[in-house]
Amino acid sequence: MDKIAITFTLPTSATPEKIWPYYTEISLRQQWETDLEEFRLTGELKTGVQGMFKIQHMPVMPVTLSKVITNQEFTEEFNMPDIGLLYFSHQIVQLSKDQYALKAEIALIPDEKLDNAATRDFLKQISDDIMDKAYALKHLVEN
Fold this sequence. Notes:
alpha+beta, START-like_dom_sf, Alpha-D-Glucose-1,6-Bisphosphate, Chain A, domain 4, seven-stranded antiparallel β-sheet, Polyketide cyclase, 44% strand
């Protein structure tokens, strides 16, 4: 099945250098992703590195950094049994010469056994707070 994605883009006055640590340093990330309990990597912060990820009320999950471009993009991949490949992408996009935006994308390549209703319900459940987290991050990086 093809990838299904939900994206939210929010302009910010902050620079990529100001934003980036809020994606990559757990103590800063927990200030806007308040349900994040643990995020550990087995190597450097680069594409292909694996680790462990835990959010409240969920078990620890293995994670792979599927794409890392410093000051631009940080994407996590989760292989979820019976659901599919789930991606959380945190991006800093340039809108104009000195204007940037926070871009959050949740994407799923559903397992072939997952029907449309179950796919929709799963994505809706995990995407409900994407805007709240983007606004919380915007507040932190602009103040």
